[in-house]
What we know:
With 235 residues, the protein is an alpha/beta fold. It has one domain (8-232): 3-Layer(aba) Sandwich (Rossmann fold). Helix content is 39%, strand content 22%. It has helices at 8-12, 16-26, 43-48, 63-74, 113-123, 143-147, 156-161, 177-190, 197-217, and strands at residues 33-37, 55-60, 82-86, 98-104, 124-135, 167-175, 225-232. The chain has a seven-stranded mixed beta sheet with strand order 3-2-1-4-5-7-6. Strand 2 (55-60), helix 4 (63-74) and strand 3 (82-86) form a beta-alpha-beta unit. Helix 2 (16-26) packs parallel to helix 9 and helix 8 (177-190) crosses helix 9 (197-217).
Amino acid sequence: MAAYAGTELELFQHARNWKAYxxxxxxxxxxxxxxxxxxxxxxxxxxxxxxxxxRWLCLEPDAALARRIEEMTIAGxxxxxxxxxxxxxxxxxPGPLFDCILYIDVLEHIxxxxxxxxxxxxxxxxxxxLIVLAPxxxxxxxxxxxxxxxxxxxxxxxxxxxxxxxxxxxxSYDLDSAGLFLSLxxxxxxxxxxxxxxxxxxxxRRFVPxxxxxxxLLRYRVGKSILEVRRKxxx
Length: 235
């Protein structure tokens, strides 16, 4: 498997407020057997997996990153239900295997997003859930997006256009309205290819708490990230 060149994983593992915020929307759907696609260095797993799941499979195409997740399980930082597999969804035979499939800041890295979601839908059990968190608004595409391998950013219509017909929308949210203004500043003024740790901590400690208050007032229609929950229809 090809190595992942992005270095943002080390930075964003410190965004604990952000992980707790989007996690509050996701946790009600995280039951049974969970597949986390593109699990990276395990920071999302550590934040979301509480051990109540029967199985949590971390799927990661980069073998070096997968080893880091294995080390976390050995060290007891992840619950016993966690497993690691090196590969992609293409390695699974088609058939319902999972109750929830997660793409947390991953789908934008996959060139054939439509094909990827079709494979994911085939792996979902009926009436179970697929969840996507992705960067929003192509107008905000910056050198940072390019540097870490983003093919695109999404709005609700664009994300809906690549979803398989078998997956019906349960909920859709634009999140982090306060952070949107930081992204606009980077897009128009700074044009940085990579944020600093200080910038990540400022955003996470100051702006994410503001977003938690503002987003409901804005009806979750404004933000720099989009969160979508889909359910597989019964046949």
